[in-house]
Every structure is written in structure tokens, then in C-alpha cells.
Design brief:
293 residues, alpha+beta, 2 domains, 6-stranded mixed β-sheet, 5-stranded mixed β-sheet, 4 helices, 17 strands
């Protein structure tokens, strides 16, 4: 195992290398313990506020390629626990995947740590209208409060699909992976691509979503994951036989289907909070009276 810790405040870098024995139920615990030790040994502290840029790389038998995951964490109390928690979740998901048994051969973790609080709070989400029709464009504005700094406003547009048959949809603003996110990869390659392609805590996401009860979850293919990361967009295909939308992007969140999405990166900032606005759709009906009336 290799760990590199960079103290941005004191311009200090330390590297750690250790051989960890493979013992079922113990190896992962030792990996997490080593992460915490490297943090404490470099910064000469454990508990304290700050911001961490975290990057991990896993190599092992059962993985189709090196698995790389990155994120950013800001905490007002104990920042050291955030990357350890992220590492624990990553290891747990890798161990519990249904496609292949993974035997880790190499683990590399990199930290860049500062005591500075670099966070943004989502304060408000506003839309340009209360009512829309399928095919309309929604103009939105999100107010963001930088901790101990200024208030900023981000604006953008979301497109309502013209063929959408719904009376109410939602616009949501959040960062990172939302609660209730249940991906459904169909292979080990898709599993790795999904883990690497998740939005980070520094990514502001504005999402247009609707409920779709008839359609089950759709898996994220490798091609769709790469397309999503390059274009920051979701691909929807309307199935006229099933009369429903096929989501070729990230799939379902809390049973809701993504219709359109806007992303903006805030490098070095952890975005907190969320905001939701409901949107009422007005539908046009082609109603004709039967002959004789």
C-alpha cells in the first residue's frame, strides 16, 4: 500500500509504503487504519476542521483495469474521517460486487490537506415561471453562499422533452451523489465505470426529473458513462412501442427519471445542501366530439 499526504498549509509531503497481509475481514480494516495513521503522522493532528482532496487507485485480480476514484471533502469538526469513510465505502462496494471476486494487489491513496474551510452552501433555487408545457425551456437560478465569502448566482437552462406525458416534474439542485442513488451495472466493466463516473462533492448538479412508475431501472453502460463524463449530459430515447422514456444515462434516483441535467464544477469547494422546486405542466388535448353531437 502506498499513501501520499500533502500538507498544503506547511508545504510538506510525506510518503508511506507498507505491506499488508491478506486476512479476510482484517485486511480492509488495516487499510483504513493506515490511512488515518498517515494523516496524523503528516499533519501532527487528527481532529480538526479543514478541506481534503482525496484520490484512490485500486489494482487487483478481478478488476478489468485500475479503479480510480476522486473526491473533495470539507468538514467543520474532524476532516480526517471523511476520506476514511469514503475509502471504507469504496472497499465495501468492490468487495460486495456480484460480478467477480476482487483480490487487491496494490492500493495507492493521495491526500492534499488544508485547514482552510472551502465550502459552498446551496441557498435557493428559483425558476422563471410557475407553469410550463412539454417542449418548453426552464430558466433557473441557484444562489450559492461561499463560506465566509460572497453570495454567487449560477444560471442555466433545462429542456422539457416535447413528448413528455406528465402533469408535474421537479427541478433539483444538489452536489455529489444524491441519497437513494441505486445504480444497476450489468458487468464488471460497467461497475468500475459507474464508480469512477459518480459526481464529486465539488460538482453542482441541476436536474430535471419526473416519476416513471412503469419503467424499471436502466443500467449504465460503459459507453454511456464515458459519454456522460465528456458531455455532462443525459441521453434519452423515446420508445414509441412502450410509450415511455429510456434513460441511457445515470438511471433512477429515488424512483425518479432524469430528463435533463446541468452541471458546473467548483474546483476546491465542497458544496453542501440541496433545493427542490416543483413544476406544473399544462397539456394540450386534441378532443373531438363523436358524430351526432
Amino acid at each position: 500500500m502506498e499513501i501520499v499526504v500533502q500538507d498544503l498549509d506547511r508545504q510538506r509531503v510525506r510518503e508511506f509504503q507498507v505491506e499488508i497481509v491478506r486476512i479476510p475481514g482484517v485486511t480492509d480494516f488495516l487499510l483504513l487504519l493506515m490511512n488515518l495513521y498517515a494523516f496524523e503522522a503528516t499533519l501532527e493532528r487528527v481532529v480538526g476542521p479543514g478541506t481534503i482532496i482525496w484520490r484512490s487507485e485500486l489494482v487487483g485480480e478481478g478488476l478489468p483495469r485500475p479503479l480510480i476514484q476522486e473526491n473533495l471533502f470539507t468538514c467543520l469538526s474532524d476532516v480526517s474521517l471523511a476520506p476514511v469513510s469514503a475509502m471504507e465505502q469504496l472497499l465495501r462496494e468492490v468487495r460486495q460486487n456480484p460480478f467477480a471476486k476482487v483480490e487487491l494487489e496494490q492500493v495507492r491513496v493521495e491526500f492534499a490537506v488544508s485547514q482552510e474551510i472551502r465550502a459552498i452552501q446551496i441557498m435557493n433555487l428559483t425558476l422563471d415561471r410557475e407553469y410550463y408545457s412539454p417542449g418548453d425551456v426552464i430558466e433557473f437560478a441557484v444562489d450559492l453562499q461561499i463560506f465566509y465569502g460572497e453570495l454567487q448566482t449560477v444560471t442555466g437552462q433545462l429542456q422539457i422533452p416535447a413528448e413528455l406525458d406528465a402533469f408535474q416534474i421537479e427541478v433539483r439542485a444538489y452536489a455529489g451523489v444524491p441519497l437513494g442513488y441505486f445504480p444497476s451495472p450489468r458487468s464488471m466493466e460497467e461497475f468500475v465505470a459507474e464508480l469512477e463516473g459518480r459526481p464529486t462533492n465539488s460538482m453542482l448538479v441541476i436536474e430535471l426529473v419526473t416519476w416513471d412508475i412503469e419503467m424499471g431501472p436502466v443500467g449504465l453502460t460503459q459507453e454511456a458513462a464515458l459519454k456522460q463524463r465528456k458531455e455532462n449530459a443525459f441521453v434519452l430515447v423515446f420508445d414509441f412501442e412502450a410509450m415511455s422514456w429510456k434513460n441511457l444515462g445515470r438511471g433512477f434516483v429515488n424512483g425518479m427519471l432524469t430528463l435533463d441535467r446541468f452541471e458546473q464544477e467548483f474546483p476546491g469547494f465542497h458544496i453542501w445542501g440541496q433545493a427542490t422546486e416543483s413544476v406544473t405542466l399544462t397539456q394540450e388535448f386534441d378532443f373531438k366530439l363523436p358524430k351526432g353531437y
